Amino acid sequence: MVQIKAMEPQYAAYLHDESRLMGSARYIAFPDSLSEVVEAVRWCGDRGVPLTAQGSRTGLSGGASPAGGLILNLSRMDRILGIRKDEAGNCYLRVQPGLPLLRLRNALKNKAFDISGWSEKDIEVLRELKAGEWVFPPDPTEPTASIGGMAACNACGARSFLYGSIRAHVTELVVVLADGRTARLRRGSERARGRQVRIPLREGGVFEATLPEFDTPTVKNAGFYIHGDMELIDLFMGSQGTLGIIGELELKLMRAPGHLWGVTAFLPGDEAALSYVEALKDMAHKPAAIEFFGHRALAMVERQRTLTPAFARLQELPEDYGCAVYVEFNDEDNSAMLHDLEELAGLLKQVGADPGDTWVARDQEELEKLLIFRHAVPETIDLIVEKNKKREPIITILSTDMSVDDGHFRELFRMYKEDLSASGLDWVIFGHIGENHVHPNILARTADEYRAGLALFEKWAGEVRRMGGTITAEHGVGKIKKRLEHILYGAEKMGELALLKRSFDPLGLLGPGNIIPKEGEDGCASTRA
Hints:
The protein starts with a strand and ends in a 25-residue tail after the last helix. Helix content is about 35%, strand content about 20%. The protein is globular and about 65 Å long. Mean pLDDT is about 90; it is low at about 525-529. It is an alpha+beta fold. It contains twelve helices and 19 strands. The protein has helices spanning about 35-45, 100-110, 120-130, 145-150, 160-165, 270-280, 295-305, 335-350, 365-390, 405-425, 445-465, 480-505; strands at about 5, 25-30, 50-55, 70-75, 80-85, 90-95, 135, 170-175, 180-185, 195-200, 205-210, 245-250, 255, 260-265, 290-295, 325-330, 360, 425-430, 435-440.
């Protein structure tokens, strides 16, 4: 039976996620099974208590920061429940939502599974597997992210250029609805009929709802996914616990690539980088990742390298760097590497860069050095934001993840640079440039700077709407980006999303404050954090 505990100081860390948006709660629970999740949801429904589901709290949009009521922390639901293969030889894992990505990776790499409770059939499948034979492709920046949390915000990561978001790798969900009833949704089985939703319930009967009369943007999008005739499993990925709680997942694995290698190239400036990236996208051998690091981001990490002992192992930057682009390839073997290196050298020369100013990783050990550098950028931002927040509590991570199509990305990128350069704020740009999606981060030092950053984001949201893009390519809307979502969709479409939410959650108890503004709320929770 699930224990509902009163909030005490010892649970203070559960009042925020990585965004640093502080929340509040009266209760907290740590279920360790699907049945206990059902109990907690019904307990809240009987008493009208709001409920915020949490995983590892690594999100950047405030989605796991509670807005009163009960914190339902799923971190103890961290088991791998079983394994299967289909007739085509594809491999699938069943997992609980609190399982950390890093633990999943290690289990696959080392063939180290806790098989207690597994069926003999599942154990037989496991016996046939080799250590390191299979991988789970999604690669968010934070490897301690929980699988359920990744699904709830449709997490992406650097390698989504080749492999897509987690949505493409989830084949089944068990979800707990607001009244405690449950549904098992399988990819390829349950679909909307036009805009009509019919979800078979495991307890018997059918849940019915109607989808909004608009489709969400087709560019990279981690928010609500709405399309006519859509797969209903996708309705819950990106909804951040507002329509139901993810209680179990089935993941489709991929055979591990035989060879991974990457190149970080240093370019004279951003225009050269944009041209280089456009050429990378046209390569016959498609990269797994294309990442950008602006000059200010590189300088920020270089400064931090002298201040933080943990960063001392980072590679030194070449002299006269402008910006950098990291490109990674995943191959069956290394036979194509030489040809690809020659092609990259030619592309760099075409944009005025020196192929000699590169870091090349030809094996996993060398690749780890490049990945450590890539992760040093968001880690440094976290350190700076944490320091500034101690002086000014309103401050949170102030980062956008807007995305547009190929035809509009140069316009979007130049707008970022022009507006930020004229703002007088401290800022850096880095991110997933291969998918027309970079992260401008504003490192606010005061409340006024924080509000000025939000105003810039709102301006950009209006421009992205004109370009047909989205304001949440990767990190979800949560509480922090509600105002931007309102700008993107407008009042009428937001009203349709609110009706969808109400049909799933009539009392408005699930994911309070996430995505859908309450009546009378302007949608910009972060200005009042």
